[in-house]
Design brief:
126 residues; alpha/beta; Barwin-like endoglucanases; 6-stranded mixed barrel; RlpA-like_sf
């Protein structure tokens, strides 16, 4: 019986997952004003701003899995804001979050964007 409960929870989570492909770029959050999610972010925050095509206020604080598809670096960040100028499924990351998806060569070269796949609904809130 316990196995069925675990399986049911896994299926419910899997159904709720949604994946997207876009371009991830870096942005400096305004440290003086709260975001759409109601929090103040800094450049050291590990957060993502989602585009209108994806964002829902109920997602604030949820964890997103992101992969730099060019370099196969992956990790998790927290949804912290709405990206006002992101087109399609493109996203923006705070500097601290952005650098975790780059190798040393790309950091030294000053790379400001990368192709990204990201998945919502795998994890809960941070």
């Amino acid at each position: 019986m316990q196995f069925l409960a675990v399986l049911a929870a896994f299926v419910a989570t899997a159904v709720a997952q949604t994946s997207y492909t876009g371009i991830a770029s870096v942005y400096e959050p305004n440290e003086h004003f709260p975001t759409v999610c109601g929090t103040k972010l800094t450049s050291t925050s590990r957060t993502v701003a989602l585009p209108f095509s994806v964002f829902n206020i109920t997602q604030c604080g949820q964890i997103v899995a992101i992969e730099n598809t060019a370099d196969q670096f992956g990790g998790e960040v927290t949804i912290g804001d709405l990206c006002w100028d992101c087109e399609g499924h493109n996203i923006k990351l705070t500097p601290a979050a952005f650098e975790t998806y780059l190798n040393e060569t790309n950091i030294a070269a000053g790379v400001k964007s990368f192709p990204a796949d990201y998945v919502l609904g795998i994890f809960g809130r941070k």
